Fold:
Amino acid sequence: MFDTCVCFAEVARLHDFFDGWFRGALAPEAFSQCEAALAEGFVIVTPGGEAVQRDELLAALQRHRGREPDNFAIETVGRRCHRVNDVHLVTYEERQSGPRPNIRLSTAAIAAVGDSFVWHHVHETWVTV
Structure:
């Protein structure tokens, strides 16, 4: 299944935010989008195996605003989505281009809340090519 699950649009939306934020193309007030998307208790497991809690991640993201050059970009490609009640378990590729190109394979638990989504957990791993 490629890009057919409704949550793939949410994955793209949040990563479009990261793309603009890291390049400094978004105003500081835009950060509220990220804060609203990550649930209390959110955890991300990085490709290096570190579990990072929501508050620590938000602080790191705040510090990273505008630190990437204009040629930095993030693209996401949906791979698989499995829905259990209001929770989507979605697997996608995150492809970063620019000075440090890389690919991550990520699995996320994203809950549908009304017309939007809240992220509860992400686990990333490096993809070597």
Notes: The mean pLDDT is 94.
